[in-house]
Amino acid sequence: MLQSLHVKNLALMEETEVEFGRGLNILTGETGAGKSLLIGSVTLALGGKFDKEMLRRGTESALVELVFQTEDKRVRDKLMQLELEPEEDGTVIISRKMQVGKSTYKVNGETVTARQVKELAELLIDIHGQHEHQSLLNKKKHMEILDAYCGEVFLAAAEKVEKAYKECRELQKALEEEAMDEEAKAKEQALAEFELQEIEQAGLRPGEDEELEQRYRLMVNSKRITENLSESYQYTGNDFENGAGNALGRALRALGSVSSLDARLGELEGQLVEIDNLLADYNRDVAEYMADCEFDGEDFAAVEERLNLLNHLKGKYGNTIEEVIAYGQDRQRLLDKLTDYEAYMQQMEEKYAAAQRRLDAVCGKLSDIRKKNAVSLTRQLKTALVHLNFLTVEFEIAVSRANTITSKGYDDVEFLISTNPGESLKPLSQVASGGELSRIMLAIKTVLAGRDEIDTLIFDEIDTGISGKTAWRVSEQLDTVAHAHQVLCITHLPQIAAMADRHFVIEKSSQSDNTITDIRMLEEEESLGELARLLGSDALTEAALSNAREMRKQAVGHKCERNEDFLSGQSTPAKKI
Fold first, then answer.
1. H helices of 388-516, where?
2. What is the pLDDT of residues 349-363, one digit of tens each?
3. Three-class SS state of 245
4. 3-state secondary structure of 398
5. Assign residue 468 a region: left if phi > 0, alpha if psi is -120 to 50, beta otherwise?
6. How far apart are CA 120 and CA 111, in angstroms?
7. Are 503 and 495 a contacting pair, CB within 8 Å?
8. Which of 443, 469, 486, 515 could join 384 in a cystine, given CB atoms 3.0 to 4.6 angstroms apart?
9. Which residues, 6+ apart, have CB-to-CB distance to 466 below 8 Å?
10. Sheet hosting strand 426-427, strand order edge to edge
11. What is the pTM of this model?
């Protein structure tokens, strides 16, 4: 759950920190006090769009920090996947420091990317914004909701559909690319034959270019090499009066005349003999190397011509001899294909047809799962809608076959509803008002919460367009969800605020030339005063407080009945599965 929220220098918030609890956390306040800004700060911490206008006046940076407490294994696994060390007590701290043109995200003190934060947030919190219910007007959202309800078996089937769809698309693309008329085929064949002949005639050998380049360098530099080797040979040989060979010979003769007088002198003579032998070996090797450097102009011309040919082929067909050879092999395969083009295309079409059949089969299995779950979800949503004061509602999730197949299968999913007796079922977008859409979205969230492992749900003004008895039903439904999940809810309705397990008020005040938004948790009596304000009372009269107490009593009574029903097994509030 979300334990605490810390905000600094964001819009009207100078610095505020609030600790939330389990159950239903209600946030109320005057219009313009900054209720949605507080929830918006949560969205910012989790990767939402930041604008420089959000910075508090006179400041250079803003900070939002969220502290979660979770025992969810998926969160621990995700942290490990992100190479972040999970805390032993399950604490997850997400922070974002925002400056103009720059944001820094951290998880448990380690710097991470916005994408990594969003991946982690998907396991921790679900935020229902003020206008999210409008997404129900789009049929695409209907399929997303049904798919989210379907569970693990569906995910496995959906993965097979996506894989089969990708295979079909690749084969279809290959068919389109391979298709050619006789003229194009003839041109392609002639070019392939020319290129293959050019490569084959070259008689390429892997590594040949490197060997020739080395030999070419020696040939180009042979004169300088020979001159320097000759000079080295002269200084180390016996032909030059002051050469090392002559000097070493004289040294040996001088030492040899006395070496028999002492064993140590004999050892020194042996060392000098070894040096003389090494020098003689060196001179022989130098002489052989200089002999190898001798070549005629024809050899040089042949090497140069061969290198030019190899570089020409590498310039056309690949960066290395190996790549050129591989290109030639590819040309041979192309010629083999073009030689029997009709048979090749028929084989491709058969592969594509087989892939289409496999795709249709896995789409059928996926559709069966959707249809089966649509019946169950329809039943649960209808029950939830009745609880939300849709007393004569008829609801259906229509799953039909679309004209096209996508990576999500071939189903077309649409929510149909009738809210008045005798009226036929019609698409949601044609009959539902704003207030009805809000309640339908709450019903969906309530049902999905029973299967969702996300612990924290946020509702930003879920009560749009409702009042009276319907508001009580929404309040009761939120309490049902909050029995198994932490719920944070911004509201302007006293019926919903009365159901709070924790009640927070968001207030705006002026200090000198500054305006500040702050949040604090209310004690019971303060909560009654806020309920009285929500009921429309300008002053805290005894009558207004009496109405507030009665409303609070009714809410507490519902909570007690819900708990008694749950303990006796007569009701099954939303729970994690």
1. 428-431, 434-449, 468-482, 494-497
2. 899 999 999 999 999
3. helix
4. strand
5. left
6. 14
7. no
8. 443
9. 435, 438, 439, 474, 493
10. 394-406, 409-418, 426-427
11. 0.64
